[in-house]
Amino acid sequence: MEIINTIGRRKTSVARIYMKPGKGEIVVNNKPIETYFPFDLHQIVVKQPLALVGVEGTYDVTINVDGGGIKGQAEAARMAIARALCEFDAEHRPPLKKEGFLTRDPRMVERKKPGRRKARRRFQFSKR
Description:
Elements: E1 4-10, E2 13-21, E3 26-28, E4 31-32, H1 33-36, H2 40-53, E5 59-66, H3 70-88, H4 93-99
GO cellular component, one term: cytoplasm
Protein name: Small ribosomal subunit protein uS9
GO molecular function: RNA binding; structural constituent of ribosome
């Protein structure tokens, strides 16, 4: 039995996954995916690479996710699963690449600058 270990990132979220052949169970931080991601949309995002390639119910996935918000964590997990599928079978790479699941989204929150209220927003100007 081969276990594939990959990492995915999105914003400040980091997802480390362990994927092996199995019955299709997905566990996130030692909880079932339905418990950790209560919204259906986030569950769908995590399962997108498996559905695209047509291997749902074939692999057991254990996900350790940390940092960021719930959406960033789901998209980080999606990227890690897509990378793991490419390691299992190189033929999966073209469709996953076409959908953009293998591309790291580099957008991050811009840092706050000194003398400003936020990153770019200035303090309110008062004439008097």
